[in-house]
Specification:
Low-confidence stretches: none
Structural class: alpha+beta
Order of helices and strands: EEEEEH
Radius of gyration: 12 Å
Number of helices: 1
């Protein structure tokens, strides 16, 4: 799914088989490269244990994209 948030496009790439992770691509308007990150949460664990990983080759990721992704992940993980 693709969403427009402010001046950036955020795409959900997919989830793992157990729905414990969601990957995101983010491309701010005018940026040449996409940022790529994922949010993980273990089943039966609270959000205090959730974590984010950023792909080593990723472009910079706006904090606003991470904030949006966390809210999205809270609904689906």
């Amino acid at each position: 799914m693709e969403f427009v948030v402010g001046d950036m496009a955020i795409t959900t790439v997919g989830t793992d088989g157990d729905d414990r992770a969601i990957e995101f691509l983010v491309r701010p308007e005018g940026a040449a490269e996409e940022g790529h990150f994922a949010i993980f949460r273990e089943h039966d664990e609270g959000w205090e244990s959730a974590r984010i990983t950023i792909a080593p080759e990723s472009a910079a990721i706006p904090v606003a994209a991470v904030e949006w992704a966390v809210e999205f992940a809270r609904e689906y993980l």
